[in-house]
Design a protein that fits this description.
This protein is 38% helix and 11% strand. The protein is α+β, with helices and mostly antiparallel strands. The strands form two sheets. A four-stranded antiparallel sheet has the order 4-3-6-7. A three-stranded antiparallel sheet has the order 1-2-5, with no helix packed on it. Strand 3 (302-307) and strand 4 (310-315) form a beta hairpin.
Length: 380
């Protein structure tokens, strides 16, 4: 009896110690160089709530809206394994910081007059603010979707085309449609049905932003035909944004972005490209000098183009590369709308992510004349 007693006393003591340790852990996990302010955001009810507050639509300040004004990573508040979709939401939150900052910096950099001078509507900057607010709402939604056992990444420093208002708006147009194509792939990564639905809902918001840009800014037809482009390898698109991140500028505690990643060579069309419309013949440029593809002489490589729910493969002549550049014709059969996502693979149709050896590149087909402009502007 007394033996049992002492056992349960020990158990109580161990449990008490355990509870103390668990309670104390969050404070210990915050790296000392952070104030701890961001930890308030671990509570999903802290601050304006997306879907309830109009903060994520109609905040008209220039200063960063919540939670974009709090840039420290949010450390886990509970111990345990990550939830099944935490990597997916972490990837999405890291990508969202890029998009949020792109709008925020554009709003800080350009005035109403800057947009008026290039013939844009007088509501342009106001709409950009509204989109920025939507993106701030995405930040908050993604923070809340990451479970309390995983870190919620903070922003890095970024490099954006902010030289002039036109290239800024052109880049915005490709960024929105790239987000959409990327989300069609990311939805496949989420294991939980509810999360798949949330990702689909976010992609609708990006499509509305794109529709506004096409109609109001470019006076173009807003429709992309019967289907937007579905691209299966979301993390490859995310990795292609690496060029926008100032090297070494991310919070060191942030998870790898994206995770998992393949470190594929970046792909673009050469800067003298005159057309990226279906049927145009282009020269390929692998834009990162430190990450060039290696083509094995005995392997047949293909440029694989994804458009709508189709893909088409074009065999490549890689002999003599890099001395002899690689040229390819964009499939003429594709309708000139929406986007084409292009990559290099060692199998026709790029049936697995491992078959991809370079890219992807997102080619804007609408407005089609903007594609070459983006290539020269160092766009994607
Ligand atoms: C961030 O914005 C929110 C809402 O506007 C505000 O309440 C909060 O004080 C701001 N925090 C910081 C650190 O600027
Ligand atoms: C903005 O443009 C619209 C239509 O082009 C015009 O009716 C309106 O007066 C303008 N508003 C301002 C504030 O300039
Ligand atoms: C290829 O891309 C690099 C990096 O953007 C650029 O400096 C170079 O001029 C491009 N080459 C061609 C042929 O377009
Ligand atoms: C490309 O299309 C082919 C033929 O329809 C299909 O078998 C293949 O799975 C597609 N590739 C991807 C990555 O979806």
């Amino acid at each position: 009896m007394s033996r049992l007693h002492s056992h349960s006393a020990l158990l109580v003591w161990v449990l008490a110690l355990l509870a103390l340790t668990v309670a104390a852990i969050p404070a210990f996990l915050v790296t000392p160089r952070y104030s701890g302010e961001a930890q308030k955001l671990a509570d999903p009810t802290y601050g304006p709530i997306p879907g309830e507050s109009d903060h994520y639509s109609s905040y008209w300040g220039v200063d960063r809206p919540f939670p974009g004004n709090i840039s420290d990573p949010i450390f886990p508040t509970q111990c345990g394994p990550p939830a099944e979709d935490d990597y997916t939401w972490q990837n999405l939150l890291s990508a969202e910081w890029i998009i949020f900052e792109f709008y925020q910096q554009g709003i800080e950099r350009f005035t109403d007059e800057d947009f008026a001078k290039i013939g844009m509507p007088n509501t342009t900057r106001l709409r950009l603010m509204e989109i920025r607010n939507n993106e701030a709402g995405h930040l908050r939604i993604f923070q809340n979707q990451i479970s309390p056992t995983s870190i919620k990444p903070g922003p890095c420093k970024y490099i954006f085309p902010l030289r002039d208002p036109r290239s800024y708006l052109a880049f915005m147009t490709v960024l929105e449609i790239s987000s959409m194509a990327f989300l069609t792939g990311l939805v496949r990564e989420a294991k939980n049905d509810w999360n798949q639905g949330v990702i689909a809902a976010i992609s609708q918001t990006e499509a509305r932003h794109e529709t506004w840009a096409l109609m109001d800014l470019w006076k173009a037809n807003p429709f992309a035909g019967p289907s937007d482009t579905s691209f299966p390898y979301a993390n490859q698109i995310l990795y292609s944004t690496q060029g926008l991140i100032v090297p070494g500028s991310c919070p060191p505690e942030n998870p790898e972005y994206p995770h998992p990643r393949q470190l594929l060579p970046a792909l673009s069309a050469a800067s003298d490209t005159e057309s990226l419309a279906p049927g145009a013949t282009i020269t390929l440029n692998f834009t990162n000098p430190d990450n060039q593809p290696v083509f094995h002489p005995s392997t047949q490589y293909y440029a694989v183009f994804f458009h709508s729910v189709l893909n088409a493969s074009v065999p490549l002549d890689t002999k003599g590369f890099p001395q002899r550049p690689i040229v390819v014709t964009i499939p003429a059969a594709f309708e000139t709308r929406g986007v084409i996502v292009a990559l290099i693979a060692d199998q026709p149709g790029a049936p697995t992510k491992e078959s991809v050896v370079a890219g992807p590149a997102v080619i804007l087909e609408q407005p089609v004349e903007m594609g070459p402009e983006l290539v020269r502007g160092g766009g994607t």
